[in-house]
Amino acid sequence: MRRMNAIRCHGFGGQHRFETGLNVPEPGPGEVLVRVDASGVCAADRAMWNATGPWDLRFPFTPGHEFTGTVVALGEDAGARHRLSVGDRAIAELNITYGNDFFRQRGLYHLSDSMDVLGATLNGGWAEYMIYPADAMIHKVPDSVSNRAACYTEPLANAIHGVQRAEIGFEDVVVIAGAGPIGMGMIQAARLKTPRKLILINPGKPKRDLALKLGADLAFHPEDPDLRAALNDLTDGRGADVFLEASGQGSAFLQGLDLIRKAGRMVVFGVYKDPVPFDLNILGEFKELDLRGGHLAPFTYATALDLMGRGLIDGDACVTHSYPLEEFETAIVRTPDPDEVQIKVIFEPNGTEAS
Asked: Distances in Å between the alpha carbon of 303 and those of 152, 270, 308?
């Protein structure tokens, strides 16, 4: 029996342990065993570390829902089921859905009422090996995409879903709030829609500078008075046509309501710690806004991999820090220096990828 190392979560509030000598799982019918090449740290992972979460989870489990791996074994019929061979690099979508409920019938599988989540209700990628379940949606990684960039697929796929929800047009002035993994993916995906102007709002200058390199036309601190002046100049004072909120800050959502024009489109993709009170009259009586939510990444993993594979989105630029599993606490609690860009922090459980 092969052995492996993994990070196991035994409860909320810092109850994670680096464990050695665990059995490498054996793939059952339809299942795929991968050697984990890279696995990301997400805001949800940090929420589990910092406090009691709102989720109903069965402890212990292996976290990590952003991952990429190399196939090392296939269960019965798994090769034909997933079109995979040993040696392929592949990614599984994090949500595993079952049955034929109302949402799955309509193609909204990411909203299914019957779901498991890799890295939460099922063991995830903070380990040297993991299982992709038989019911997982699995995608091959293009040869031109590095392991680190492949690990960025999940947040990028979320970003692409948000951009699709925004229905960006050629003449639109688009504003994106937040330059984390999803916000930085939105910048690059929205650029491919060729809007008239693409503007980032983010407090930290290093991220604003990177966003300008990755496709933003303009970038502002939220409190910079030049932001409104620029929007007024671009739109004759109407305001932004499209506003995507990816920061998870209530203040950014409220700023979006202020900056968007009448009949504008607003996509809310952030995850908020606290309720955000606002005047509902802004939605109807004052502006007649089209307010849309965004959640997960239905049908966009393949798009994310394809865009990175063709060199249209730079996934490597968004993976900024890497750690071995043993240094999990450092990776989880890491905060950037003022002059440093920190976007996606990852683990490389089987060693650092050669440059």
From this structure: 13, 21, 9
Q: Quote the tokens at residue 271.
A: 């995850």
Q: How far is CA 136 from the centre of its chain?
A: 18
HSE (side-chain half, CA atoms, 13 Å) at 247? 23
User: Quick one: the chain helix, strand, coil %, rounded to 5?
Assistant: 30, 25, 45
CA-wise closest residue to 91 among 71, 117, 111, 62: 71
Can you read off the two tokens belonging to residue 207?
């991220």
Which positions ≥6 away from 127 have C-beta within 8 Å?
Answer: 4, 5, 6, 7, 22, 36, 39, 62, 64, 325, 349
Instruction: Give 93's DSSP letter.
Output: -
CA dihedral (80, 82, 83, 85) positive or negative: negative
d(CA 91, CA 304) in angstroms, rounded, equals 11
* Cα torsion angle, 33, 39, 45, 50, sign: positive
Question: How far is Cα of residue 346 from the mean position of the Cα atoms in its chain?
Answer: 13
Query: Which amino acid is residue 67, in one-letter code?
Result: F
Question: Which pTM does this prediction carry?
Answer: 0.97
The tens digit of pLDDT for each residue in 25-56 reads 999 999 999 999 999 999 999 999 998 667 78
Contact at 8 Å (CB) between 353 and 148?
yes
How confident is the model at residue 351, as a pLDDT? 87
- ∠296-92-107 over CA atoms, to 5°? 50
Contact 347, 16 (CB under 8 A): no
Confidence (pLDDT) at 191: 98
Tell me the per-residue pLDDT of 294-335, one tens digit each, with 9 for 90 and over. 999 999 999 999 999 999 999 999 999 999 999 999 999 999
Residue 273 neighbours by CB distance under 10 Å? 11
Mean pLDDT (the chain) is 96
Residue 337 is which amino acid? Answer: D
